């Protein structure tokens, strides 16, 4: 539901020995020694860098999407924004996972941020001089999304490189809390900035935070492991001698191997397909919450005591904040109690299934909410439910996959989920223009429940297939 990945060149022998690699006694890991004092510093630098990067990106994303929603107010406009803003990440992540396994992951985290900052400056200039239009915005969304297809697999693959294996669930939960905190701060800042300064100035916030984020990640020094260095050297040597066509064929082979590997593992198959189904059935309709807010609650004020929601930007910000506060709360609960209660992969699978079911129920709640206050409560609970399944899903993919396959697994997950959401939008967005939009949320939520049943059934299987 919320995506990422990695990848390293594999020889033919690796694909022939997948079952052997899957066994715990044969699995080699390059995770840092839990007793190593510097691992916390490396994790802190990585998470701090991502926090700044995500903050700026979120502020700009909210500002752009609100501009589209308020200017056009149609399902088709949101559909096109989703296709240009999400589909490229799905395509690029097909290769992004393989790149994360083959090349320097730290570089793959920093470089997209710098490129995205450059195109954001160009968009800012176009708004300042009056050249901006939907076409220009869609081009920038395309490039930003493409950068995410490279960066997100690299981030998720880099986390196990700097984190002891027994701390992965905690670090993933903290990462989820940081994401949620950014989503809380970002819409609040965006709502203030939209009423104070022009959009071209808001866009420059992303440039500043990207530079800061890249600086933090650049400070990370990961000790080279002998086997990892050998893999790196082999990859560099092969890259220098291969043509572009051969490189593409090698990537496709990596994808095939990753697909076979993941689909042969019941838990990996469960979280990847479960994630994709949720993105198709539930996340796609949730991308229409901006339309739901502007259509159903236009002209309706809500005084919460500490704040009075009157303007369109106030309500759009409240919509984002409700979901983000829920994800923050859910992530915090998973961080505190998850490591103690979800020690086995089977328990993590069951929690993922429960979280998916709750997402379905709460999305239905968004559609049947009788008033704005009830809607915001359902919105908050949706965030809690999402956090309850995202952390366990990431941990399963990191802990259950061999180190040489982790990138391919995350790349596959990112690809499936990223394609599923715009495909869902192709179904739900046009419907939102011909039927009551609340019905779209009810249908999406109900259709999510079978995905929870599927993941729950797989949790009864053995962790690893028999040899």
UniProtKB/TrEMBL annotation:
Keywords from the UniProt entry: Cell membrane, Membrane, Transmembrane, Transmembrane helix, Transport
Compartment list: Cell membrane
Lyase found in the keyword field: no
InterPro entries: MFS, MFS_dom, MFS_trans_sf
GO cellular component terms given for this protein: plasma membrane
Primary localisation category: membrane
Protein name per the record: MFS transporter
Native source species: Bifidobacterium margollesii
């Amino acid at each position: 539901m919320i995506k990422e990945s990695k990848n390293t060149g594999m020889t033919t022998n690796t694909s022939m020995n997948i079952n052997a690699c899957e066994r715990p006694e044969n699995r080699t890991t390059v995770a840092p020694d839990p007793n190593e004092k510097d691992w916390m510093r490396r994790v802190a630098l990585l998470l701090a860098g991502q926090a700044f990067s995500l903050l700026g990106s979120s502020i700009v994303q909210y500002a752009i999407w609100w501009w589209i929603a308020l200017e056009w107010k149609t399902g088709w406009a949101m559909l096109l924004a989703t296709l240009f803003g999400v589909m490229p990440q799905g395509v690029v992540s097909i290769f992004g996972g393989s790149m994360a396994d083959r090349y320097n992951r730290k570089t793959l985290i920093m470089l997209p941020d710098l490129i995205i900052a450059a195109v954001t400056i160009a968009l800012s200039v176009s708004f300042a001089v009056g050249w901006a239009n939907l076409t220009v915005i869609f081009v920038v969304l395309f490039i930003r999304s493409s950068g995410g297809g490279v960066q997100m697999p690299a981030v998720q693959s880099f986390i196990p490189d700097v984190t002891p294996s027994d701390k992965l669930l905690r670090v993933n939960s903290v990462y989820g809390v940081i994401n949620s905190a950014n989503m809380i701060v970002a819409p609040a800042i965006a709502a203030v900035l939209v009423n104070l300064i022009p959009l071209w100035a808001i866009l420059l916030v992303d440039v500043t935070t990207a530079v800061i984020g890249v600086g933090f990640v650049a400070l990370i020094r990961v000790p080279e492991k002998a086997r990892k260095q050998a893999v790196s050297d082999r990859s560099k040597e092969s890259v220098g001698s291969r043509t572009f066509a051969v490189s593409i064929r090698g990537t496709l082979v990596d994808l095939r191997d990753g697909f076979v590997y993941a689909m042969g593992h019941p838990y990996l198959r469960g979280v990847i397909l479960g994630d994709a189904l949720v993105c198709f059935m539930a996340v796609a309709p949730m991308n229409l919450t901006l339309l739901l807010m502007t259509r159903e609650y236009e002209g309706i004020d809500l005084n919460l005591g500490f704040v009075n929601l009157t303007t369109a930007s106030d309500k759009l910000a409240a919509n984002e904040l409700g979901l983000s506060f829920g994800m923050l709360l859910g992530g915090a609960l998973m961080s505190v109690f998850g490591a103690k209660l979800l020690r086995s992969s089977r328990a993590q699978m069951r929690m993922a299934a429960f979280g998916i079911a709750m997402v379905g129920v709460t999305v239905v709640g968004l559609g049947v909410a009788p008033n704005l206050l009830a809607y915001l409560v359902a919105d908050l609970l949706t965030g809690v439910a999402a956090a309850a399944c995202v952390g366990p899903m990431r941990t399963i993919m990191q802990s259950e996959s061999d180190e040489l396959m982790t990138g391919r697994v995350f790349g596959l997950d990112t690809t499936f989920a990223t394609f599923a959401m715009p495909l869902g939008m192709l179904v739900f967005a046009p419907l939102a223009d011909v039927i009551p939009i609340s019905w779209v949320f009810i249908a999406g939520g109900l259709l999510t429940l079978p995905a929870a049943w599927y993941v729950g059934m797989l949790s009864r299987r053995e962790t690893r297939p028999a040899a």
